[in-house]
Design goal:
- By secondary structure, this protein is mainly α.
- The protein is about 45% helix and about 5% strand.
- It contains 8 helices and 4 strands; from the N terminus they run αααββαααββαα.
- The strands form 2 sheets. A two-stranded antiparallel ribbon has the order 1-2.
- The termini are far apart.
């Protein structure tokens, strides 16, 4: 009797254990495929042409819902935009301000101003988006993932290209959307990137995957604009340490040569 009970318990544990990975996979979403990002690795650098296109995608599509509170227009010079281009981009927007008399006014945005907020406040943002405020995208590429340099970018790319029809038997509540990469596979955000969602100023064909690729490059740059400088400094430090170690070894051999 005890043996039968033990076998039954073991079988139950095996059954539960076999269903856990599937349940966890459904809850967590599909594992994002690793992408070949130019900024990855010890010598990684930004593809600034792609990041500039990504800014265009953000500006024309994403900025209708998402803010970038940490970004100012003048920061775009780090992507290669000229001073005149930055001024022209900023001038497309109006910002609230006060005049010398302390009266509220609306003026043309300057390069020193923060990126335009599509909503006057969080309550308005939530009301326009099903009760939830769309997340700020300034640091999104670093916020997603589990610490690896490309975890966040891989996830965002998988999410932006993960909108599909739900598989047979999967129920998507009204007003929500199926996404293979999103935890639980159900998200309030619709698929905003489609073929031709933007017309690239450099003539690049605006396919869905290209738009997602470019905006991820832009989001990685906004999250870590000093990435290239940090990596270049790291290379210099390592080269210095290698040379310094060689000099120390040479001095040690010369000093102790007569002791042997």
């Amino acid at each position: 009797m005890m043996l039968r009970s033990a076998l039954t318990a073991a079988a139950l544990l095996l059954t539960i254990g076999s269903t856990l990975p599937a349940a966890r996979a459904a809850e967590e979403g599909a594992e994002p495929a690793a992408q070949n990002w130019s900024f990855a690795g010890f010598f990684g650098t930004f593809d600034k042409a792609s990041a500039q296109r990504g800014f265009q995608v953000y500006k024309e599509v994403c900025s209708n819902c998402h803010t970038m509170h940490l970004m100012s227009y003048r920061d775009l010079s780090g992507l290669g935009f000229s001073e005149d281009e930055v001024k022209a981009i900023a001038a497309e927007y109006k910002v609230a301000d006060t005049n010398d008399a302390g009266e509220p006014i609306e003026r043309t945005a300057l390069p020193s101003d923060k990126f335009h907020n599509p909503f006057p406040n969080d309550k308005a943002a939530a009301a326009a988006n099903g009760g939830k405020v769309p997340p700020d995208l300034s640091l999104m590429a670093k916020a997603r993932g589990e610490g690896g340099e490309t975890d966040g970018p891989n996830y965002i790319y998988a999410f932006l290209t993960g909108f599909h029809d739900a598989p047979a038997g999967f129920q998507v509540p009204d007003g929500l959307n199926y996404n293979a990469a999103f935890p639980g596979h159900v998200t309030a955000m619709p698929n905003m990137l489609t073929d031709g969602a933007v017309t690239y100023s450099d003539g690049t064909e605006a396919k869905h995957e290209q738009e997602a690729w470019d905006v991820v490059n832009f989001l990685m740059w906004t999250a870590e604009p000093a990435l290239e400088q940090r990596k270049h400094t790291g290379v210099k430090v390592i080269l210095f340490l290698i040379i310094f170690a060689g000099l120390l070894y040479s001095v040690k051999r010369k000093v102790w040569a007569n002791a042997h």
